[in-house]
Amino acid sequence: MANPKVDAYIGRSTKWPEELAAMRPVLLGAGLTEEIKWGKPCYSHEGRNIAILQEMNDFLALMFFKGALLSDPEGVLEEQGPNSRSARRICFTSTDDVARLADTVKAYLEEAIDVEDAGLEVGPAPELELAAELQRRLDADPALAAAFAALTPGRQREYNLQISEAKQAKTREARVDKHVPRILQGKGLRDA
To answer: What is the pTM of this model?
Structure first.
């Protein structure tokens, strides 16, 4: 059943409104519940998230939350990025793409629902290896170490990635310094 909040979202879209409108019946035809989550059209089955539509600058993405568990016989699923473990997406740049891939999307949605019904989960994340500069700071400051440990694993990973991607040690140390106050406040890198 179409959700009026998604109607409004599509009505406000300036990037991919036609593609959103074309994808919507495919998703609703799979019997999914439509709502807005994280500010985007999200589709769920019996309260469990299956897929979300994401408007990027260069494409419209249909992201499957547990896409890594899908078989992908058509080879259309892409990783979101190098640090994405479970999500996979299909990218569309036109309504022709949506029409061409509609049957594939239907099949993948059925498989994603089956994955949820079976209770399958993506395996645990590998142990987080902290940037040396961050680890040294945590070792030297028990209050900071406790605050960092209290963050969610995703927030810890996000800080670590942002710090470790700097090429120079001096820059990594500056990033640690910059983030200490936010960590002590229990905030993630992008929290308000």
So the answer is: 0.73
